[in-house]
Amino acid sequence: MASVTLKDVRKVYAGGVEAVKGVSLDIDDGAFCVLVGPSGCGKSTLLRMVAGLETISGGTVDIGGRVVNAIEPSERDIAMVFQNYALYPHMSVYENMAYGLKNRGTPKAEIEARVGEAARILAIEPFLKRRPRELSGGQRQRVAMGRAIVRKPQVFLFDEPLSNLDAKLRVQMRVEIKRLQRQLGVTSIYVTHDQVEAMTLSDKLVVMSGGQIEQVGTPTDVYRRP
Ligand code: ADP
Ligand code: ADP
């Protein structure tokens, strides 16, 4: 686990779009921070800068006491869960979950133990030999989360992970993520435009608008205000 500190973080895209206009934010060890706001307000850009998928135009991103501005995604101790799952179609569920660990040279027995544990936590043990196309949307999203969990990262990043699911599954997975949060306690940053997700999942809620933070606090603080 690690704290995440953003200091005056900015992003200007080629072409001049100012997507993030000086965001400062402290996320404590083990906190679940949700970034919420309308489409285009800069949430995804901010998350992608923390992930190292987007260059940082100004300010600093600090993960666990280390400024990571110029550090490659693979060198940051983070795992990201994407909206479109980003699973490898030609690999089985097991191979998808094991892939990142294999690349890091984790011993086979350790990989088996970690994938087994994550599969148990997420109730996807029966599907380990299947390909992603043989799974439902909810099961695929569980695999995507499993792939993040097995890494045992310091920080989880979630980019609208539930928006491709139908309403019923969204509620189910929300409960699942909440349970994982309690069980694992890993520092998390979660991007969504869904206020219900934001309210139910967050310890720390950040409302963004036009590339800036508009409000920050506990969900009750934020939603109590007029
Ligand atoms: P959100 O995640 O809140 O929907 P984004 O971070 O995706 O917002 O986008 C913030 C702003 O930056 C928008 O105006 C969007 O059009 C712009 N933007 C996002 N990605 C790029 C890009 N690769 N190049 C140029 N502009 C971009
Ligand atoms: P999100 O809101 O989840 O970021 P989008 O559909 O806005 O999803 O963006 C999908 C992809 O297109 C992202 O990689 C984003 O960086 C890029 N993108 C978004 N807006 C622009 C833009 N105005 N110009 C170029 N690329 C963009």
TrEMBL record:
The molecular function GO annotations come to: ABC-type transporter activity; ATP binding; ATP hydrolysis activity
Q: How does it sit in the membrane?
A: Peripheral membrane protein
Q: Which UniProt keywords apply?
A: ATP-binding, Cell inner membrane, Cell membrane, Membrane, Nucleotide-binding, Sugar transport, Translocase, Transport
Keyword DNA damage assigned: no
Task: Spell out the GO cellular component terms annotated for this protein, sorted alphabetically and separated by semicolons.
Answer: ATP-binding cassette (ABC) transporter complex, substrate-binding subunit-containing
GO biological process terms, alphabetically, are: carbohydrate transport; glycerol-3-phosphate transmembrane transport; glycerophosphodiester transmembrane transport
Q: Where's it found, cell-wise?
A: Cell inner membrane
Locate the ABC transporter domain: which residues? 4-226
Q: Where mainly found?
A: membrane
Source domain of life is Bacteria
Recorded family membership: Belongs to the ABC transporter superfamily.
Protein name per the record? sn-glycerol-3-phosphate import ATP-binding protein UgpC
- Which organism encodes this protein? Salinarimonas soli
